[in-house]
Amino acid sequence: PPKFEEKHKTIHAKRGEIAKLPCDAIGDKPLTVSWTKDGKPLMKRGIDYSYEIIDLVTDRGMISELIIESVRRSDNAEYKCVAENEFGTDQRKIVFVVIEVPSQPTNLKVKESWSRSASINWSPPFDGHSRISKYTIQYWIHKASSRKLHKITTTNAQTTALINDLKPGQSYEVTVIAENDVGIGEASESVVFTTNKEGKVLSFVFELIVIITSEPSGPPMDISVKPAGPTSIKVSWKAPPKDQWNGDLEGYYIGYKAVGSNQPFSFRSEVSTPNKDSTYKYEFFLTNLLKATSYDIVLKAFNSAGSGPQSHEMRVKTLDGDLPSAPNAFVVSSTKTSVTLSWNAQENQSARAPVIGYIIHYQLENDDWRQIPVPSNSMNNDGLSKSSTYTFVVDGLNSGMRYNLFVTATNKHGEGDPSAIVVAKTGGDKLLSAFLGGFNMPYYFQPMFVIPIVSAVVIIFIVLVVTFVCVRRLKHPVIPDERFHTLNSKQFAYTGTTQRYVDFENSKPLMNESGNPYPFAYSTMPMDNGENPRKHSVNTLSTPIHRHSLNKLDDDSHVYDNPQ
């Protein structure tokens, strides 16, 4: 008689997959195999072609296989295959289980709501023949212009949850989603509820407590990542919305890890003062990375209370080659509507991919930057990988205006570092162009770089010399030499005589003060008829007298020469 070696079997298949239910019967020929589903016989092919039965005769008997093209929930059943020949029958039972994501939860209700929280519950859905691992509660402000979604996840299969951090007197909409090992099911029907209102004083106190003790409630926004070289990545972002700061932001954490790595994210911090302008773009360069390696990047904002939620992952790959070096750009000349710009290609390109073009960046002062791609076929030199000087005319400019310009080189890996910014003014002023551009000179020899440094050095030198002289005078003051004094305002008593002149020998030296080796001239002294002599003083002379002058006296006085 026919026989099945395995009488019972349970087969699982996910919804939408192809499923095969085999029956391997052993027995003498002729041998037939028939199928039933939950006791109802099956034809060789389904009416809607949802299944097909294929029989294959073997040396041992027959293999009959039921193939379900796309598994549906209705295929979940008990199947039997019956083998029969002239000697008897045997059967094999197959329990086919269709596993799928859970259905949507039902009977969602708001059990109770307060001013800043609400309690909800719901009924568990069909689990899709796989245990429900968790529920996700989603809620948002009802009829808001922008639907900002908030999420709460339960740690197990509980069917109740408490929603916190709500606003008083605000209408919310909430829904629940179940999840199992297969995936995430459909969301339940949403329910609308309104929180209670509270007094202004209580509301202010609560908001103050939240601000002081809460970390940021939102991640950074508008995140972009791009390779900046073979070992570096440029990350840029904007701050979270102001109402999610919960105080002043102190900075950001930038996390990164290689794709496929089992290690957690490594974080670097960027401490910065938050810009009040919501459009401000922050930038950070991750360096010392692996060459030609893909990385996942995440960001978190932090304040004094801690760090906020993590952003979604951004993937980027470092370059597998080096970017070009920065060119050395300078202005050659200018006209009313154009500027002639030249630059030198760097010589150290041997280890890098050849330069395939340049990009000229120019900006009208206090305006947006513009770019002019310069491909290799438009250059006045053959090839761009050699060390040469290139020239390009930027035209269509405004007359009499100042422009900022710089140049970047490109190769197959991307755009390299920029040159130093040079300034030019349209209008054909060759002297100004030469001053601003410095002709064909390195930037450290250009006048705009040299003149300020030389001026500073000269000023410092002058200050040092003046300081040295002043300090020296204070330490060593000039003391007059006593030898240069004759009489020190000394008064003499008058001794009258009837002679107008007194004869004395010419060879005899004049009397002087003790210790004074130098002679001095006679002094002049007025006299009043021998009565009531006036006080007189002797002028101190420090040099030999070549001419004597008499003080002009009153008409009734006489002047007498008195040798001392």
Automatic annotation (TrEMBL):
Domain Fibronectin type-III, chain residue ranges per copy: 104-198, 219-321, 323-429
SUPFAM superfamilies: Fibronectin type III (SSF49265), Immunoglobulin (SSF48726)
Keywords: Immunoglobulin domain, Membrane, Repeat, Transmembrane, Transmembrane helix
GO biological process: anatomical structure morphogenesis; cell differentiation
Name of the protein: Down syndrome cell adhesion molecule-like protein 1
PROSITE patterns the UniProt entry points to: FN3, IG_LIKE
Keyword Repeat: yes
Residue span(s) of domain Ig-like: 2-95
Parts of the chain that traverse the membrane: 449-471
KW Ribonucleoprotein (keyword) present: no
Gene3D superfamilies according to UniProt: Immunoglobulins
